[in-house]
């Protein structure tokens, strides 16, 4: 499970960073969202990966650590609010700058005119 | 009762912000009065906390009476108290300036301003790593909105970069926290320090990775060399009172580095790894920012690069790490923060009397109140370049004295040359604004009384810090000594708690 989990986190992070470096605001926002998912999954794993462990307290000798769950919840809320904010900001930038490029240019270098 | 008072720097702006956001239909005058009153209250509370901390007392407050290491603790030591009073003083100056009309250009200026103060104060007080992250986020959220207050092409463009960069930084912050939590099993700073001191072999690598990631995040906030390219454009585009308040935002990064470095990672191999990076990054920041100061063609950009010079200086001081160096940088810190804040306000006043030319370094019409503005510009320029009669010179001299051996060889020429660059750039700017611009006159944009009050409040710090250099540098030295003994804090935070015996239990489960 560890291998699968780390693979998922790694792929999400890589995709997130790739999209974050794109020139248009929309891919950048998707990149931020993917990066947020990767980070939340990673944070979730910091309490240790267990199978058949009770979520908080239950019929298990080794209940899983509840703190990362609380942290993930906080991170999700903040990430959610921030995504909403960036979307609005991107729309505003589109109307103010007249382009959806992050630098406000009308075309990417190499674009056909 | 009195032990609850340490929460006031967080509660006052929080309740104030809620009130200001709820009553956003109230008249401008009312909201201005409320906001100013809140800032005055924060100055008073911070001064009281400064007096308490200055007596060598440390205050700890367990929120909801959940004891450390399980609950969140607030802690007030000399460093926190210094940062609180600095924030409050800077905020009062900015709010006074904003009351001249800048606040009415958009909505909810004062509410957001108080929210940002709440985030800053909380970050300076908290003793919990995740709580630090939350307060960072509150500060950033408010700063995003404040930065784009009033709108406009330039602000939205710069704001988009600022927001996206800081969101990526926040993601990195959580990763760093996750690594540190996975390796140590705690988020309380004092508890983490205790466990880091006891860590063994393969844990060391994980903790070092986590710590360096944290430093990257804090360097992004503090705007250290490879991560500073966002700052000049952002600060130059932000409204003047907001840019003035942002002068403390870079110091938030510095504070966080100082805090984790001195409390959590003191005397561990991790600290050496951090210091090696900080030293060279700090020096490179000074060098490149000095070039930026000379190359700037707008007063606002120029001031932004001056902020960067001070960041580099402070970071290099942090990397020196000795008690003398930390003491010197803590003496230099309030001076440079307040003067950079004041410079943004002065730039705004100059810009509003020059018509279309604004703050660009070009010849334009004659300034209407050239003697008043020139006088203030002169004081600020002398202060920021670090020339003798004012506190900047003293702070730099103390810092240079604290450098030893080969460190001296690097720090001395860089600091002095950066000072020279600042002097050249400021005199050139001053000559263009006050001497080379003599034709015609713009009869508008007179300096209003609140603007003058705000700037003078901040500028007054320069002579006052010299006049009271003895007590202030004494306090800074005492702060550095307190930071050098993290064991006292750890014992107080964990020793007080009846739950300590449970705290010893390590959490079962595989580390990632």
From TrEMBL, chain A:
<protein>
    <submittedName>
        <fullName>Na+/H+ antiporter subunit C</fullName>
    </submittedName>
</protein>
<feature type="transmembrane region" description="Helical">
    <location>
        <begin position="28"/>
        <end position="49"/>
    </location>
</feature>
<feature type="transmembrane region" description="Helical">
    <location>
        <begin position="6"/>
        <end position="21"/>
    </location>
</feature>
<comment type="similarity">
    <text>Belongs to the CPA3 antiporters (TC 2.A.63) subunit C family.</text>
</comment>
<feature type="transmembrane region" description="Helical">
    <location>
        <begin position="69"/>
        <end position="91"/>
    </location>
</feature>
<dbReference type="InterPro" id="IPR050601">
    <property type="entry name" value="CPA3_antiporter_subunitC"/>
</dbReference>
<dbReference type="Pfam" id="PF00420">
    <property type="entry name" value="Oxidored_q2"/>
</dbReference>
<keyword id="KW-1133">Transmembrane helix</keyword>
<keyword id="KW-1003">Cell membrane</keyword>
<dbReference type="InterPro" id="IPR039428">
    <property type="entry name" value="NUOK/Mnh_C1-like"/>
</dbReference>
<keyword id="KW-0472">Membrane</keyword>
<keyword id="KW-0812">Transmembrane</keyword>
């Amino acid at each position: 499970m560890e291998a699968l989990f780390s693979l998922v986190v790694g792929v999400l992070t890589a995709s997130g960073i790739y999209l974050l470096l794109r020139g248009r605001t929309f891919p950048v926002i998707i990149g931020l969202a993917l990066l947020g998912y990767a980070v939340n999954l990673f944070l979730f794993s910091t309490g240790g990966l267990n199978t058949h462990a009770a979520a908080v307290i239950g019929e298990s000798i080794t209940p899983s650590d509840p703190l990362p769950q609380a942290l993930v919840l906080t991170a999700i809320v903040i990430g959610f609010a921030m995504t909403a904010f960036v979307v609005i900001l991107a729309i505003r930038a589109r109307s103010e700058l007249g382009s959806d490029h992050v630098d406000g240019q009308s075309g990417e270098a190499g674009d056909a005119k | 009762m009195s032990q609850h008072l340490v929460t006031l720097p967080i509660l006052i702006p929080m309740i104030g912000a809620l009130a200001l956001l709820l009553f956003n239909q109230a008249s401008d005058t009312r909201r201005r009065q409320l906001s100013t009153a809140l800032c005055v209250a924060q100055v008073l509370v911070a001064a009281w906390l400064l007096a308490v901390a200055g007596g060598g007392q440390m205050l700890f407050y367990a929120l909801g009476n959940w004891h450390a290491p399980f609950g969140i603790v607030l802690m007030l030591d000399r460093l926190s108290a210094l940062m609180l009073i600095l924030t409050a003083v800077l905020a009062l100056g900015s709010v006074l300036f904003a009351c001249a009309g800048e606040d009415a250009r958009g909505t909810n200026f004062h509410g957001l301003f108080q929210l940002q103060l709440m985030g800053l104060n909380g970050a300076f007080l908290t003793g919990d790593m995740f709580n630090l992250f939350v307060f960072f986020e509150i500060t950033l959220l408010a700063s995003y909105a404040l930065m784009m207050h009033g709108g406009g092409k330039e602000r939205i463009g710069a704001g988009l970069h600022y927001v996206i960069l800081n969101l990526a930084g926040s993601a990195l912050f959580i990763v760093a926290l996750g690594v540190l939590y996975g390796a140590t099993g705690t988020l309380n700073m004092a508890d983490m320090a205790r466990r880091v001191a006891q860590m063994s072999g393969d844990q060391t690598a994980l903790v070092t990775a986590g710590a360096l990631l944290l430093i990257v995040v804090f360097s992004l906030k503090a705007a250290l060399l490879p991560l500073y390219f966002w700052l000049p454009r952002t600060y130059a585009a932000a409204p003047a009172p907001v840019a003035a308040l942002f002068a403390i935002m870079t110091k938030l990064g510095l504070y966080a580095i100082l805090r984790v470095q001195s409390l959590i990672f003191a005397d561990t191999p991790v600290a050496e790894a951090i210091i090696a990076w900080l030293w060279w990054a700090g020096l490179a920041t000074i060098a490149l920012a000095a070039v930026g100061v000379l190359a700037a063609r707008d007063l606002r950009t120029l001031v932004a690069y001056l902020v960067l010079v001070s960041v580099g200086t402070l970071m290099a001081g942090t990397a020196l790490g000795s008690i003398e160096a930390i003491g010197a940088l803590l003496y230099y810190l309030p001076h440079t923060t307040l003067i950079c804040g004041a410079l943004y306000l002065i730039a705004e006043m100059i810009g509003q009397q020059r018509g279309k030319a604004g703050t660009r370094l070009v010849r334009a019409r004659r300034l209407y109140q050239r003697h008043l503005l020139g006088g203030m510009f002169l004081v600020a320029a002398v202060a920021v370049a670090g020339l003798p009669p004012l506190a900047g010179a003293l702070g730099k001299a103390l810092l240079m004295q604290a450098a030893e051996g080969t460190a001296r060889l690097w720090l001395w020429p860089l600091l002095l040359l950066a000072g020279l660059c600042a002097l050249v750039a400021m005199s050139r700017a001053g000559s263009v604004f006050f001497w080379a611009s003599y034709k015609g006159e713009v009869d508008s944009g007179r300096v209003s009384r609140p603007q003058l009050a705000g700037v003078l409040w901040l500028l007054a710090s320069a002579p006052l810090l010299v006049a009271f250099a003895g007590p202030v540098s004494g306090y800074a030295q005492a702060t550095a000594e307190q930071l050098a003994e993290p064991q006292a804090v750890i014992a107080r935070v964990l020793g007080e708690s009846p739950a300590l015996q449970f705290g010893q239990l390590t959490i079962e489960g595989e580390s990632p």
